[in-house]
Amino acid sequence: MKISFRAAASALAFGVAAISVSASAAKDPAPTAAEADRFVAQAEKELFDLSIPTAQVAWVNSTYITDDTDALNTLFGAKNTEAAVRLAKEAAKYDKVSGLSADTRRKLDILRQGIVLPAPATDGAATELNALSTRMSSIYGKGRGTLDGKEINGSDIEEKMGTVRNADQLKEMWASWHDNVGTPMKADYARMVQIANQGAKELGYKDLGAMWRSNYDMSPEEFARLTDKLWLQVKPLYDQLHCYTRTKLNEKYGDKVQPKSGPIRADLLGNMWAQEWGNIYDVVAPKGAGEIGYDTTELLNAKGYDPLRMVKQGEGFFSSLGFEPMPETFWKRSQFVKPADREVICHASAWDVDNKDDLRIKMCIKVNGDDFTTIHHELGHNYYQRAYNKQSFLYLNGANDGFHEAIGDAIALSMTPEYLVQIGLLDPAKVPSADKDTGLLLRQAMDKVAFLPFGLLIDKWRWSVFNGTVKPAQYNDAWNALRLQYQGITPPVERGADAFDPGAKYHVPASTPYTRYFLARILQFQFYKAACDTAGWKGPLHRCSFYGNKEVGAKLNAMLEMGMSKPWPDALEAFTGSREMDGTAMIAYFQPLMTWLEEQNKGKTCGW
């Protein structure tokens, strides 16, 4: 996850954002193109100056949660975001001006379209919206579940969901987390939607969802159709993975816990939200073919890695491509491990505090393979942020938000066995042979492919909430209906009328648009294939590593430097040669696995 604090376009992307619309000015003479240019320049300066102290306060609030830091974050968030929507409303005055340069037109659109949570002109609306957002984020950050009746914090419960194999303990952790974290924020969330929707309408949008979808260089309707098209491209692969995984869970837990047909019980998939299934690879790995020959967590521990060394190694990948090392302040100011003496938000994120080189990551790193991958992901944000830091303020962002999420993941795809050998983690004699490819691909698919429907449904749920199709009383039923429709999963326990399971996922109370992660899953394979093509790779796509290839680094940097200065198809074309997002690179990567899964699933009743 990326935190850029580019106030106008992201409006505090971490979700603690609310904006108050100022009263309409008296009717002025028709504005000119020159006036629009001056307005944009002034707006960029104002937002730049506001963004830095706002980011600093937000950092303190995320890494030291108290009532006081909550209050400060609310105060600075309101000030910053009030300016953002005032400028958004003023930007709309220049919408019909003739003779605008392409640069000014783009910046005006960014000012108007990029706000996450706008508040209406009503007195006190901005402050209330910030208070609601901050309170929900704090509920999440302080959240606790239970294991064997004993309290367990958010970071630890996530880890336990991936390692525990006792169905009753998994059910307890799942239910306690969703009840303790999600349920208390339901009323706040409903009120937040009410306020932010009114703010979106005052800015000329049908609702908040339409406003979010407007930020992709196409209409909201075109964007929704694009996401549906991408999903249909990759859905057959997900369906086969679901069918195979369900069979293996049935073999382990039996019919009473996991039936042979129908949906999968959500808590059995190794992740609190069933969004990635890689943690249960040991359950689903086929005999023989499933033995990939190494475990990254074991390798890291055997070599004595600690959290800092894991981050240093992640930096080393980017250095091998020709990127400059992280600045010294990165190592001094980042949060790498969970402090023992205070409450923090452990959810991993990458920060660009001063819009230049005060780059940081915030994690509670555990020495395991998942966090090693996450480090590469977060560093991808940081290197992107630094690459475009010479752009003007409104362009300090990815070509679209899916790009930002995809960069580090494309790097992580290159963390092949050969890469692990190159950095001294894996013995060359233990590199899996070609007959282990099924295991390698299945392990990847348990995360990459399993995530796809989850990445899509969170915003589909929110879009329905924002447009009024789903009312507060229907929040949880609608959530679980989408989880069943897209993921084919079901809760392990009955959910009560007061339940608010969406709130138990960080990005919902934090108001972080989520379709970016779905797009990133598609884009990372396009980026990865483009990098492998540039590197001249000739073997199976999934075995390609471009570690150490300076040509790939130079071409990648050329795209990153563009930031948001051009429409995303221009940026995509600069690196991949294509102007279309599509799932064909992902399908090509997993094609050997797809063939194998279809064979394993013969005679099974797939679907749910």
Automatic annotation (TrEMBL):
Stated name of the protein: Peptidyl-dipeptidase A
Taxonomic lineage from the root: Bacteria, Pseudomonadati, Pseudomonadota, Alphaproteobacteria, Sphingomonadales
Annotated InterPro entries: Peptidase_M2 (IPR001548)
Residues at the catalytic site: E378 (proton acceptor 2), E378 (proton acceptor 1), H507 (proton donor 2), H507 (proton donor 1)
CDD domains according to UniProt: M2_ACE
PROSITE patterns per the UniProt record, alphabetical: PEPTIDASE_M2
Residues annotated to bind Zn(2+) 1: H377, H381, E405
Biological processes, Gene Ontology terms: proteolysis
Leader peptide range in chain numbering: 1-25
An MF annotation (GO) of this entry: metallopeptidase activity
Binding site for Zn(2+) 2: H377, H381, E405
Residue sites binding chloride per the record: Y216, R516
Keyword Membrane: no
GO cellular component: membrane
Gene3D superfamilies with a match to the protein in the record: 1.10.1370.30
Disulfide feature: C346-C364, C532-C544
Keywords of this entry: Disulfide bond, Glycoprotein, Metal-binding, Signal, Zinc
